[in-house]
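Researcher: I'd like a candidate sequence for this fold, 317 residues long. If you have to choose between options at a position, lean toward the conservative one.
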């Protein structure tokens, strides 16, 4: 099968199309033909030698977490998801095969039926970003009606889902983004959009119950500045890996609660998200689509920042 692989860590140029053997399913796994694969920041971090690179046991390595495709083989004959069904999900790369490939073998616990209302390209933009947003907003923050929540980088892959989930559960949603995305984010459910290019959020945001930090201190000390807008005892959730090493200590001094968050790829949660998508309560926005052989260009675009929503690779027809 065709796949995009890397033989070493480095810049986008280390990604190239290779021919490798397709995976063989075992035990409670699906064999899936991949039609599209999402591109996420963790992919770029891993390619560059960070992310999940320490867990890579052999090279060349195929990156990618998100997939949308068609079932070729089910775990067993009576399984409710049959060959020919359209599915999507998030793998545990590198514990499972990377999704920048024409076929993947995935444990049943990671595979859900694709939302009927989405194409494969759209569906591939959902799993990692939506599960991250759900885990931060719903499971960790337990956002509910009457709360005020600040979400940084609301126009990004995780951010545009976090805005929608927080709004769905009744919160007053504030988000930071560039001015060009303000109208779109209000359509998604944001009540206040702070243009970070022209104003400091701490100057215009009234105290909030929760901050969902999708930036950290890698840019303009966004994380540290967020502590000043939290109510006493409020909660800050930091998502990007390695973006704020001093989070816990700073939060204690500020008198607020803090936690990092790492996504768990659970198909049962993804099935709930699918229902919200098919009901029209949640939308996914795909900014750019690249063919598989242009994965390096997709990474270059991702690393330039300012992508609205998601970037997706079209793997096969």
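Model: Candidate sequence:
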């Amino acid at each position: 099968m065709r796949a995009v692989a890397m033989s070493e860590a480095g810049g986008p140029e280390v990604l190239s199309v290779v021919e490798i053997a397709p995976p063989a399913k075992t035990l409670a796994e699906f064999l899936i033909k991949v039609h599209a694969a999402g591109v996420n920041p963790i992919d770029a971090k891993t390619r560059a030698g960070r992310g999940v690179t320490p867990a890579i046991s052999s090279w060349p390595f195929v990156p990618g977490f998100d997939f949308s495709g068609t079932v070729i083989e089910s775990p067993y004959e009576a399984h409710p998801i049959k060959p020919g069904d359209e599915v999507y999900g998030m793998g545990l790369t590198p514990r499972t095969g990377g999704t920048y490939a024409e076929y993947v073998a995935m444990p049943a616990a990671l595979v859900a039926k694709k939302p009927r209302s989405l194409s494969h390209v759209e569906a591939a933009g959902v799993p990692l970003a939506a599960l991250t947003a759900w885990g931060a907003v719903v499971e960790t923050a337990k956002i509910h009606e009457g709360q005020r929540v600040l979400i940084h980088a609301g126009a990004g892959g995780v951010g545009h889902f976090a805005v929608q989930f927080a709004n769905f559960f009744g919160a007053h949603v504030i988000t930071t983004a560039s001015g060009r995305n303000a109208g779109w984010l209000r359509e998604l459910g944001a009540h206040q959009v702070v243009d970070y290019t022209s104003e400091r959020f701490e100057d215009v945001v009234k105290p909030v119950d929760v901050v969902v930090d999708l930036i950290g201190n890698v840019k303009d000390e966004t994380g540290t500045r967020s502590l000043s807008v939290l109510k006493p005892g409020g909660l800050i959730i930091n998502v990007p890996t390695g973006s704020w090493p001093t989070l816990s200590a700073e939060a204690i001094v500020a008198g607020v609660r803090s936690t990092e968050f790492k996504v768990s790829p659970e198909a049962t949660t993804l099935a709930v998200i699918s229902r919200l998508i098919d009901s029209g309560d949640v939308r996914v926005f795909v900014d750019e689509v690249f063919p598989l052989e242009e994965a390096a260009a997709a990474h270059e675009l991702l690393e330039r920042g300012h992508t609205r929503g998601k970037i997706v690779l079209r793997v096969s027809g």
